[in-house]
Amino acid sequence: MNEFVGECRREWKRLRVPDLVADEMAADLAADLEEAEAEGVSAVEVLGSAAADPRSFAAAWAGERGVIPPAPLTARLRGKALVPIAIAALTTVAAVGAALVIFASPHAKTLLATVPFPPPPPPARTMAAGEIWVVPVKVHGRFLVPPAQTRAAGVGIHRVGSILLIVGIIGVLLSTPLLFGSSSRRFKTAQP
Amino acid sequence: MRCMASSNGRGSQLLRGVLDLCLLAVVQDEPAYGYEMTKRLRALGLSTVGEGSIYPLLGRLERDGLVETYRAAGNGGPPRKYYRASPEGQRALAAGLAEWRSARDAVDGVLGLVEAEVRP
Question: What is the ipTM of this complex?
Answer without folding.
Answer: 0.83
